[in-house]
Design a protein that fits this description.
The complex is a heterodimer of chains A (283) and B (482).
Chain A (H helix, E strand, L loop, with lengths): L3 E7 L2 E15 L4 E7 L3 E6 L2 E5 L3 H15 L5 E6 L4 H6 L7 E5 L3 H10 L1 H4 L7 E4 L3 H6 L5 E7 L13 H10 E10 L9 H14 L2 E8 L7 E8 L10 H6 L9 H6 L5 H8 L3
Helix pairs in contact in A: 6-7
Chain B lengths: L8 H11 L17 H7 L1 H5 L17 H13 L3 E5 L2 H13 L5 E5 L4 H10 L2 E5 L3 E2 L4 E2 L4 H10 L5 E5 L6 E2 L2 H10 L3 E6 L22 E4 L1 H4 L7 E5 L5 H11 L6 H39 L3 E2 L12 E2 L3 E5 L7 H12 L5 E2 L3 E5 L6 H18 L20 H6 L2 E5 L12 E3 L5 E3 L7 H12 L4 E2 L8 E5 L2
Parallel strand pairs in B: 2-3, 2-6, 6-8, 8-9
Antiparallel strand pairs in B: 1-10, 4-5, 7-12, 9-10, 11-13, 13-15, 14-15, 16-20, 17-18, 17-19
Helix pairs in contact in B: 1-11, 4-11, 5-6, 5-10, 7-8, 11-13, 12-13
The chains are: A alpha/beta (283), B alpha+beta (482).
């Protein structure tokens, strides 16, 4: 018997992974959660059928969402992470001894429970004493914070579904308010290759640009995400990711990474022309 | 056939009709959608297939004898009424049918001035004379309140031959009058009580809500099932009890209502009634929970005031509908309509309306928690980014109208168009109102004062959408030309 998991990347394009075994399948109050053991990519987490992380390529996403802002300001002490139920973003953050506090806000406790049991590769640092997990709506949590965080990472699902509120102007404004005057906001920013998410992405970028003085986009190559080409949003009140990068100081921290390095840090902000054109279009 | 509240006779008849694959050589000409493929793709084939005309198995709205009759009887039972009518031309038609069923030309009808335009339109059509009662006003919030029992008593003593009293219950903002007492009082003088219950369809189905018109013993009520009851836009119920003659009401309705009643609208009323009877308690409980949560969160934000039951004063605010999320915005220096526009233009959030001092968001069981979070967060952002000093905010007072002519006489008089400010001192020949909420600032037959013109200009400047006048730009106004 052959068992294949398929994700639709567009109406006419699918990515299929051969599955050894389904380890977990439950429906929470928010979404359907599954963990599959696949032949090529190891264990994989899916939410409502969409692939979130695999053991084989999660390092790319987690390196890029964490190390780019961390290297742009080496004095980050207080971090808020929204989403990130698999724990991979937290794992990378805990590698910085300078961080004093990591608040994680995940709407769906069952995702965390499932990952603790079946996805230790990413969930392994959720018990770090600096980590505090809050199970609530990210938009609601951040609304109540003022001048509290040096960095906010939005490690969310797509803009349709439980993560919808995390792509709105009110959310970006609330984040601005929750950040210190040196604060940085990084969010997963979808991809612009297939048409179905382009408008949502452009609108989100426009909303961030209206809110923050510095609003840029950077890229990474993630094999299991639609088109393999993924974008992140970098918004900041003060630190420019290239001007304020101190390569020597970050390298002196001795953090060993599989994808990120300080040369790539500079390069990832150079975008293909078709993406630049899409980002410059007013919605 | 014996129907119960678990049935939906019109809906069931449509299902059967679809199954029978009847060949249509009647209207509508789209013939199950085949004639207009783009429309069919847009609305869905299932929808077009039941967009059909009256025929024997589906009954006829102008003279119901089978499934529509059964559905109307179930609706009457659900609302605790003696009779119910399916209305397919909005609650406007229901309000007009109430007035025209009880008043003829020259008859007096007692009503608060803050009625919906549909009520005064009915007076234009039938020639009844309004006796306006000043609704109470909450000066802090700038909103009209309910009817005071004392004021009604005074109006009745001064106009003992009045045929009916029309009450808005609840108001758009959720404020209720002492209906039971008003009914007792009116009935003692043989005056009918008509209730514009456009915003209170849910009162009949949930717990912890104000008293409904039928429970209070009112004679007729116009219930917007499409607003808070879940049916399609434009569908509504007219319900009545006591000694109202349903046959006469049907004749009045048929004066103006279409003879091609939409089965989409009628089946939506049928299914919405069934849903509210079977699940209304839960639906209302969920709505209340969401509204209370939003109210608390908005009040914690500071600056805004999301008001509720604390307004109750035993008279002009006899009760409050807590499913309404009405928020006073004046303290952050923004007019309600400004907040309304910001929510839509900057945050992609559409609320029901914004007036000078307040906004209203309609909350129903169709809302989800994260959407409530978006609304609350957007309001907190609007306060952070746009709030300013209160200076220059017009405090809207109730403007007591001077009714110089009946609405009918004024509307059909010779008129001339003058600049707004040149209208002062003359008699208005047309309506001016902000829509929503659609409560006239000026109605035909009323004398125009400087206060009224100032208010119209202010509302225009704040970006309210003004409607009513023949001049679409509302720079001119038609006055009665003697």
């Amino acid at each position: 018997m052959e068992l294949w998991y398929s994700e639709h990347h567009s109406e006419y394009v699918r990515l299929s992974l051969k599955v050894k075994e389904q380890l977990y399948s439950k429906t929470s109050n928010f979404q359907h959660i599954a963990i599959l053991d696949t032949e090529e990519f190891g264990r994989a987490l899916t939410l409502d059928g969409c692939l979130m992380v695999t053991e084989k390529d999660e390092f790319i996403y987690h390196d890029m969402i964490v190390h780019v802002p961390m290297a742009s300001n080496l004095n980050i002490k207080r971090v808020l992470v929204i989403g990130a139920g698999d724990g991979g973003t937290i794992r990378e953050l805990t590698r910085y001894p300078g961080i004093e506090c990591i608040d994680m806000v995940e709407i769906d406790e069952m995702v965390v429970e499932a990952c603790r049991e079946y996805l230790q590769q990413t969930a392994c640092k959720l018990d770090d004493p600096r980590v505090h997990i809050y199970y609530e709506d990210g938009l609601k949590f951040v609304r109540r914070q003022v001048n509290e965080y040096d960095l906010i990472l939005v490690d969310s699902t797509d803009p349709f579904g439980p993560g919808e509120g995390l792509f709105t102007k009110e959310f970006y404004g609330n984040c601005y308010n929750a950040l210190t005057d040196q604060g940085i906001l990084v969010n997963q920013h979808e991809s612009t290759y297939y048409a179905s998410y382009v408008d949502a992405m452009k609108r989100a970028h426009q909303r961030i640009k209206e809110t923050f003085p510095i609003a840029l986009v950077y890229q990474a190559h993630i094999p299991t995400y639609p088109s393999g080409h993924w974008l992140f949003g970098y918004a900041s009140k003060h630190y420019d990711p290239i001007r304020d990068l101190d390569e020597a100081a970050w390298n002196a921290l001795g953090i060993k990474t599989k994808y990120y390095n300080t040369k790539l840090h500079v390069g990832c902000f150079a975008l293909p022309n078709y993406v630049k054109e899409q980002l410059n279009e007013y919605v | 056939m014996n129907y119960t509240q678990h049935n939906s006779p019109i809906h069931e008849a449509l299902l059967k009709h679809k199954k029978n694959r009847v060949v249509p050589f009647d209207v509508p000409g789209h013939k199950g959608g085949r004639g207009t493929p783009e429309l069919t793709e847009f609305l869905g084939i299932d929808c077009l297939k039941v967009d059909v005309n009256s025929m024997k198995p589906l009954d006829n709205l102008i003279h119901p004898v089978s499934v529509i009759k059964a559905a109307e009887e179930l609706a009457a039972e659900a609302f605790g009424a003696d009779a119910a009518f399916f209305m397919v031309n909005g609650t406007t038609a229901a309000v007009q049918a109430m007035i025209m069923s009880t008043c003829k030309a020259g008859d007096e009808i007692i009503m608060p001035r803050n009625v919906h335009r549909s009520s005064i339109n009915a007076l234009v059509v039938c020639g009844a004379i309004p006796v306006y009662v000043n609704p109470g006003v909450n000066h802090q919030l700038g909103i009209p309140l309910g009817m005071s029992v004392e004021d009604i008593k005074k109006a009745i003593i001064e106009h003992p031959k009045a045929k009916a009293i029309l009450v808005n219950n609840p108001t758009y903002y959720g404020i209720c009058s002492n209906l039971k007492e008003l009914v007792t009082l009116a009935h003692a003088y043989n005056i009918k009580v008509l209730v514009d219950e456009a915003h209170g369809a849910h009162f009949y189905f949930g717990e912890g809500l104000p008293m409904s018109a039928m429970a209070a013993g009112a004679d007729m009520s116009a219930v917007s099932m499409h607003k808070t009851g879940g049916s399609l836009t434009q569908s509504s119920f007219l319900i009545c009890k006591n000694d109202i003659d349903p046959g006469y009401v049907r004749q009045i309705i048929n004066l103006t209502q279409t003879t091609s009643g939409s089965y989409l609208l009628m089946s939506s009323l049928d299914l919405a009634r069934k849903n509210m009877v079977l699940n209304g308690k839960e639906i209302v409980a969920k709505t209340l929970e969401l509204a209370e949560y939003a109210r608390n969160e908005i009040n914690k934000t500071g600056g805004y005031y999301a008001f509720s039951k604390e307004l109750i004063n035993g008279d002009t605010v006899y009760d409050f509908d807590r499913t309404k999320l009405s928020v006073h915005t004046g303290e952050i220096g923004l007019a309600g309509v400004e907040v309304y526009d910001l929510l839509r233009d900057e945050y992609d959030i559409q609320i029901e309306f914004g007036d000078i001092g307040n906004i209203l968001a309609v909350i129903t069981a169709g809302d989800r928690a994260f959407e409530i979070e978006r609304l609350v967060s957007a309001l907190s952002e609007i306060k952070r980014i746009y709030s300013k000093d209160k200076v220059g905010m017009l405090n809207h007072e109730y403007i007591d109208p001077d009714v110089a002519l009946t609405p009918q006489k004024a509307f059909y008089s010779d008129k001339k168009s003058v600049l707004l400010k040149d209208g002062i001192g003359h008699i208005a020949g047309e309506f001016v109102m902000c829509y929503p909420p659609g409560i006239p600032i000026l109605a035909p037959g009323e004398r125009i004062t400087k206060d009224i013109i100032d208010y119209i200009i202010y509302a225009k400047e704040k970006g309210s959408s003004l409607t009513g006048p023949q001049d679409m730009k509302v720079e001119h106004i038609n006055i009665v030309d003697f």
